[in-house]
């Protein structure tokens, strides 16, 4: 049986599934129930400096994007960091860590971008017995307007500076949580590494307005007739998160920097994909807010079964497996040729493939009078649109052509050699292959 135990930057947990810093980790009651359900660790909801706590809105805090079946695809929130007193949080963190010593306890922190503020909060967090801290440089609303959160995360120099302050002050491992609201995520990751960060976590939420109420003309969620941009998360952000994770994992300047993956993890498969792209563990929020703490049991059993099936004995064997196959577009093999194939036995004759291809693609699918749909190889460029719109999984597949076969679209044989855009004769800047 696969071993799911995790050691991430020296922090041990029985599995790689952690709860992200968010409402599910806001208090002792929640975290105890999460650990009883089987979560390997938590990142406690972000703590602020000593003094009067921040004040959250008392109206709607969430907006949503739904699929056709009202399945939650994306969640927007305008909530801030914890609105509970610092000492209350610290007392509860200490109590939970005492009773669950085998679970990872990481504390998210956000205080003003001043050295004294960070040096004041770190010792009191350390005293709780917490395993590590996560620097929240990602929150895109509310706190960023006060010079914290994404206001720090968008300036690499600030990231490096604050990270260094923390590393000089505490024994605890330091994870830097990155904002996706930036052009090139590699720059803040490089800054975190220069500052001595033990790891980075990403992504935090994406700046967003999910909808507008057309009766009140107010963005939702609406507070007394007014709305604000918030942070977008959930399954819809997973592709963005995985792309940013992969960029850090394959960047020579940050290669080897441990990564905690966040962004739309809902199933064991999502977790496996993040791990294959270089993440040592994953953090979950929206899925728990949708389905509850017990979804972790399916995540654990699913990941374990898949690893057994594939012959992986530990999570570490999966970490980064996909990174060698992530490349820039210019290095993709332009001599690879495939064609769509429709299984007539599986086809339900809905016509989606035909409509999509005829109206928006390459007119490469024919329709007979009895609604039999077939691929026209002489027009098919293997764009994969028909596969994506087909409601029957596996009905349409992309089949590669063999070397030497003639592509009926171009009239040319499929070449055996790899060739990419850097050497293509149509590229004005092509460099001849040596």
Q: Please tell me what the overall shape is.
A: globular
Secondary structure tally, helices: 12
Mean pLDDT: 94
Rg from Cα:
25 Å
Q: In angstroms, what separates the terminal alpha carbons?
A: 48 Å
The portion of residues forming beta strands comes to: 15-25%
The largest sheet, given as strand count, sense and whether it forms a barrel, is: 8 strands, parallel, barrel
Q: Which structural class do you get from the secondary structure elements? A: alpha/beta
- Topology, number of strands: 22
In the predicted model, the low-confidence regions spanning at least 5 consecutive residues are none
Kindly report the spatial arrangement of strands forming the biggest sheet: 3-4-7-8-9-10-15-16
Helical fraction equals 25-40%
Describe this structure in words.
Helix 8 links the parallel strand 15 and strand 16. The longest helix is centred in the C-terminal third of the chain and has 16 residues. Helix content is 28%, strand content 21%. The two termini are 48 Å apart. By secondary structure, it is of the alpha/beta class. The mean pLDDT is 94. Helix 3 packs across helix 5.
Helices, strands, pairings?
Elements: E1 6-8, E2 11-13, E3 17-19, H1 28-37, E4 41-47, E5 62-66, E6 72-77, H2 86-99, E7 104-109, H3 115-126, E8 132-136, H4 150-153, H5 156-169, E9 174-177, H6 186-194, E10 199-202, E11 206-208, E12 211-213, E13 218-220, E14 230-233, H7 238-250, E15 259-262, H8 268-276, E16 279-284, H9 286-291, H10 295-310, E17 338-342, H11 352-360, E18 365-367, E19 373-375, H12 385-389, E20 396-400, E21 406-407, E22 412-413
Parallel strand pairs: 3-4, 3-16, 4-7, 7-8, 8-9, 9-10, 10-15, 15-16
Antiparallel strand pairs: 1-2, 5-6, 6-14, 11-14, 12-13, 17-20, 18-19, 21-22
